[in-house]
Amino acid sequence: MDSQESERLACKVIVTIPYATPVVGLVFKPMVRVLGINSFQPPQHDIIFTWYREQITCSVHHLKLATTQCMTCVALDMPVRESYFCSNQCFLDMWPQHKACHCRTTESVSKGSNNCYRLRGRLRRSGFWANSGIGSVFGESETLVERDGKTWIKVGSSETHVPSMNDFGFCLMFESLAVDCSYGFPMSEITSIMTDPVIIPPHPCPRRMIQIQHLKEYRNIVFESQSSNADTFSVLSYNILSDIYAYWSVHSKCPGWALAWEYRRENLLHEIIGYDADIICLQEVQSDHFENYFKPKLTKRGYSVTYKKKAMQLYTANRYISDGCATFFRHDRFKEITKYELEFDKTALSVIERLEPGKRAQGQIRLKKGNIALVIILERVENGSSLGAFQPRICVANTHIHANPDFPDVASLVNGLEKIAQSQIPLLVCGDMNSLPGSDPHKFLVTGRIYPVSKQERTDPLGIYRLLKLQHSIPLLGILLQVSAYSSLLHSGRVNEDEEKKMNQETKEPLFTNLFGGYPATLDYIFHTGIADIITELLPGVIRGPITFRRESWHGFK
Fold it and tell me: Which of 26, 97, 283, 304 is most buried, taking the most CB atoms under 10 A from its CB?
């Protein structure tokens, strides 16, 4: 670079990538910043973006570039690097051995799959024989460049890139260059960054509902006290992890690409829709994701929706964002009668004001967490029309409560629901309680009271417990006990051995609903008023595997 060119370099381009491993089908967008060399503000400029893919070498002659690919390997999902050859002749020379690899893969997949006939059909269509099973790796117009002793093929010229199956198994390189707006001469050095090899995302493992009893034994879950017609409905509760909390530094055991919202949202929607629930309670729904994604997507599928966002906001990406609770319900089965929005910070004020003056500042920090609850009363309809004079109703509370050893928010929620329960309306309390089984908040919900006597000074140094109502009397069909959906499963005696292994025998809850930082915990619940045998189906628990790609919490029953 001569001195004249050096004088023109008035800019510096800085590039960072959101994660190291691109995923097939997922938009990959580096963050590009341009700074001035002599001042923070750079002069007027344009940016040229270029994407390259690592050029492939022959699987036989490793020092030669590949020009031919076996398309049967692609159809069989064989290791991608084994499918490339430096020439048609190289491929034909290796055909006997290569064909044997096809046969072994076909036999292996057929033994482990019920789709062997479909696989054989794919083989025939893709060209099992050498004369029809090859394709060109790149066309005559492709651009090849040399960088640091490697050959790269140009695959794009925009700021973002969506990796395709052609990229699978290979590294990508992203280059950016600031240029003069008028003449196009460089105003910065070329900045390049290389990724890890592109991967194909794993297929989500489907979970099927556990049948608790036969259809002929079904009882009316909600409406038996108000209607003689037996009926069932399904409920899903799901903390979907707001993108504003999905930091890799916090969820370091989860791959960066799996935390990306563009990847998670499609999987979340597919999973939620697949459960086909009549009532859906979601927590940590980011306000913009609700308006731009979940609301339009689920409205198209026949759901009505109500949303309550938290008052507290976070500043990110040059804007303020909040999350909240969203409740969806099928409009052909229910209609909304009334809605209550609970902001627990407001109810905490009365407790804080009653603390000793010297403890109020600490009480503010401990009790004001921005927690909320969305409570709606739904009325049963049939095909969108009311059923007549006797219209059964249900109260659905959807809440997300910040982790806190105290339980004022739980107490406020239950105290608010007591008045509704007095009218004999059945209750469903769904949400992420951030409270382990056996903790004070959990005990309060399940047993109706707690006795914070032992170690009170250590657990309640501010004297908060003495200012709270430490019991509730929600009438639950004559039983003063609030029942968790999954504890009902074990109490029913109708759980099989496999599902019993996924339950905590002491707490009668799932082993975990949340895997945060690699540590399993049960924090999410569906509580309901009633007796144990009203549950007919439940989502199964899960077994902890060697790796997890999502932190979202779940619960669901029918």
Answer: 283
Residues 427 and 474: beta-carbon distance below 8 Å: yes
- 374/41 Cα distance (integer angstroms): 46
Report d(CA 81, CA 69) in Å as an integer: 9
CA angle 521, 525, 529 (to 5 degrees): 150
> In Å, how far are 213, 294, 333, 491, 538 from 216, measured between CA atoms?
8, 36, 22, 21, 17
With 0-12 / 13-18 / 19 or more C-beta atoms within 10 angstroms meaning exposed / middle / buried, residue 460 is middle
Tell me which DSSP letter residue 167 carries.
Answer: T
Asked if residues 39 and 280 have their Cβ atoms less than 8 Å apart, the reply is no
Kindly give the confidence (pLDDT) of every residue in the chain, 558 residues in length, as a single tens digit, with 9 standing for 90 and above. Answer: 555 555 578 899 999 998 999 999 999 999 999 999 887 788 889 999 999 998 877 888 877 878 788 888 877 777 777 888 888 889 888 888 888 888 888 777 655 544 433 333 333 333 333 444 555 554 445 677 888 777 888 999 999 999 998 888 889 999 999 999 988 899 999 999 999 999 988 877 767 766 665 433 433 333 333 333 346 888 999 999 999 888 877 787 788 899 999 999 999 999 999 889 999 999 999 999 999 999 999 999 999 999 999 888 887 767 888 999 999 999 999 999 999 888 877 777 777 777 777 777 777 767 767 788 899 999 998 766 665 666 788 889 998 887 555 555 565 566 666 666 666 788 888 888 877 777 777 777 777 666 654 445 556 677 676 676 666 666 433 233 345 666 666 666 666 666 666 777 676 677 777 776 667 777 888 887 754 446 666 676 655 554 433 334 445 555
Q: End-to-end CA distance of the chain, in Å?
A: 71
DSSP annotation of 291 reads: I
Q: How far apart are CA 317 and CA 286, in angstroms?
A: 14
Identify the helix (H) or strand (E) that includes residue 288: helix 287-289
What is the chain's length? 558
CA 460 vs. chain centroid, Å, equals: 35
Per-residue CA distances from 4 to 39, 188, 222 (Å): 20, 13, 81
Give one DSSP letter per residue of 67-124, joined into a string: -EEEHHHHHTT--GGGGEESSHHHHHHTHHHHHHHHHHHHHHHHHT-S-HHHHHHHHH
List the structure tokens of 17.
């990538």
How far apart (Å, rounded) are the C-alpha atoms in residues 382 and 394? 15
Q: What whole-number distance in Å separates Cα of residue 285 and Cα of residue 288?
A: 9
Q: Which of 376, 225, 211, 393 is nearest to 303 (CA)?
A: 376
Instruction: Please name which of 469, 285, 31 lies closest in space to residue 295, comparing C-alpha atoms.
Output: 285
Which pTM value belongs to this model? 0.74
Other Cβ atoms closer than 10 A to 485: 24
Number of neighbouring beta carbons within 10 Å of residue 9: 15
Helix/strand/coil percent split, the chain, to 5: 25, 30, 45
Decide: 201 and 523 in contact? Cβ < 8 Å.
no
